[in-house]
């Protein structure tokens, strides 16, 4: 039997003990990989908010939320902001939430469904010729017309969640609307909403001539920070601004806390896994004391014994890495498949550094957990080991 085959087979002499050690380590690997896939996907999504075609600045009323519903600004403000140096284009938008929506389809191969008050539907009112400022560059189908009172376009996330497609109808605020197109911006918030003409939403929500915020596109050579400050200076104590970069940074700050937690879990996994591996390998050394004595008696050197025990420990942890990684990937994909509303928002990341981190954790657990048992085995006296019962 070769040295390598000995290293691979020895850890499984006691299958129950080895299985328990593998399960313990796998749990830590599962958490590391699953969290990495989810947070990585969300980080990728936030980068899409910086796409070139969309507005760089959002203007809101001082003290209000940039994602708030209802109209707090006068619609004429969008035109007034065009007079500020560096402003290329503006779009007034109205945000609302329809909390009691029932869905009905008109296609022959579809059936009725529902989207109740659990989360509601995010609806945005915007002029059709300003859609690019909110990030909608391409539409599967056609955009609504500003004069229409019964047309909408849907983000791919909510369309998949509600099983909707172009030509279907949806009930909003007690009125049927035809879906003329679907869009995908890459922004998980925008793609989970519905858009319709600004005037239509204003009438439905009793917000005549009111908007929630103004999207501002700056000129090619303008500095976004400078233009943002100019807007606030022109309307002191009335308007506040936020840039796309600011929004992305705020989201990434929140995700950084999750990443920190993931690293903390990695360290905890190393500690707990190392304890489990130490216990498994020490018991293995105790049970094989006579065997180790024989190996040393026939000429095995200390470093060869140390390498064998350390190798067995690493085999256990790398097997746990493979199992944990597979379970994490399958588990995340299964959860997102079974929860379409969540799956449409979160696109898991398969970046190599996620799996590299899990591999490094597993390898460190193997080295740290196997180091002491391997050293102890290598220091056994052949004569004492052969007399061991």
Question: Could you characterize the architecture of this molecule?
Answer:
- The protein is an alpha+beta fold and 389 residues long.
- The protein folds into 2 domains: 3-48 and 250-387, no CATH class; 89-214, no CATH class.
- The protein contains 12 helices and 14 strands.
- The strands form 2 sheets. Strands 1, 3, 4, 5, 6, 7, 8, 9, 10, 11, 13 and 14 form a 12-stranded mixed beta sheet that branches.
- Strand 4 (101-104) and strand 5 (113-115) form a beta hairpin.
- Helix 1 (3-9) crosses helix 9 (302-338), helix 2 runs antiparallel to helix 7 and helix 7 (244-287) runs parallel beside helix 11 (352-378).
- The longest helix is centred in the C-terminal third of the chain and has 44 residues, at 244-287.
- The chain is elongated, with a radius of gyration of 30 Å.
- Mean pLDDT is 82; it is low at 102-118.
Separation of the first and last Cα atoms? 25 Å
| Total count of strands | 14
**Tally of contiguous helical segments:** 12
- Strand count, sense and closure of the main sheet? 12 strands, mixed
Give the fraction of residues assigned to helices.
40-55%
Secondary structural class:
alpha+beta
Overall pLDDT score? 82
Radius of gyration: 30 Å
Order of helices and strands: HHEEHEEEEEEHEEEHEEHEHHHHHH
Shape, please? elongated
